[in-house]
Amino acid sequence: MDRYKHLREWMVETQIIERGIRDKRVIEVMKKVPRHLFVPEDIIDSAYDDRALPIGYGQTISQPYIVALMTELLELKGDEKVLEIGTGSGYQAAILSELAKEVHTIERIEPLATAAKKRFENLGIQNVKVYIKDGTEGIPEEAPFDRIIITAATPDIPEPLIKQLKEEGIIVAPVGERYSQYMLKAIKRDNELERHYLIPVAFVPLIGKYGWKEE
Ligand code: SAM
After folding, report:
1. Catalytic residue among 46, 62, 89, 180
2. Is residue 206 predicted with pLDDT exceeding 80?
3. pLDDT (tens digit per residue) in 25-66
4. Which of 92, 109, 214 has most ligand 1 atoms within 8 Å of CB, for mutation?
5. Under 8 Å CB-to-CB from 97, ≥6 apart: which residues?
6. Of 151, 149, 147, the residue nearest 169 (C-alpha)
7. Percent of the chain, pLDDT > 70?
8. Which residue from 129, 135, 160, 191 has the least number of CB within 10 angstroms?
9. Cβ < 6 Å from ligand 1: which residues?
10. Where does this protein have coiled-coil stretches (predicted)?
């Protein structure tokens, strides 16, 4: 068994299953996607560590458990159209690509978006489309979405994203202060969000019209 596959199985056992992730499809895909190909080469040996890692430009690839948790909260069955805000390395989008029909992912930092695109090409991932723009405005021309995931800290769910979510659709996002938030799972019912706040988390800020201002 190759070294990274071994590390990946260990990651899934000790960080994902032991902490309560139960969705079998999520567990399988976390075992499959090569996380080490989504981190900078000089820290490749830390790829399966139990933490977020730097990917340049002051940004991070999220901790494996947080990726698994957010994915599980989306309750994907396989036929969904998903919007992700915050492509970063592309790892979360690669995970989603295995579990949904199509993924539209937005990144505001051009070199990160370009690097993620290249990774998708190299891995033969064809159902992910990358956009370079302010993700807080969503993608009106592709709406509505069955699911929306925001992988950066937001003061609240941006209004355009609520509009672009289908009725009964699910949105998952870290909501709160600039440097400390709670993971929110919300379901859209009668044009309102039914909100469930879960665990405390710490994400890098969502910078944009409906997010935080650049410092
Ligand atoms: N999902 C990523 C992954 O799997 O590597 C991790 C995302 S990282 C924690 C947050 C990302 O959100 C950063 O790459 C950051 O540049 C991006 N971001 C912040 N504000 C944004 C915005 N308004 N629109 C799009 N991307 C944004």
Report:
1. 62
2. yes
3. 999 999 999 999 999 999 999 999 999 999 999 999 999 999
4. 109
5. 103, 120, 125, 127, 128
6. 147
7. 100
8. 191
9. 59-62, 85-86, 88-89, 91-92, 106-109, 112, 134-136, 151-152, 203-204, 206-208, 211
10. none
For the residues 60-89, what does the mean pLDDT come to? 98
Asked if pLDDT for residue 19 goes beyond 80, the answer is yes
- For this complex, say whether ipTM is above 0.95: yes
Q: Is 62 a catalytic residue?
A: yes
- What are the structural domains of the chain? 3-201 (3.40.50.150)
Mutate to test the pocket of ligand 1, among 129, 136, 161, 206 (most ligand atoms within 8 A of CB): 206
55 in Cβ contact with 112 (< 8 Å): yes
Distance (angstroms) between ligand 1 centre and the Cα of 39 equals 14
What is the pLDDT at residue 2?
Answer: 86
pLDDT digits (tens, 9 = 90+) for 113-165: 999 999 999 999 999 999 999 999 999 999 999 999 999 999 999 999 999 99
Residue 1: pLDDT over 60? no
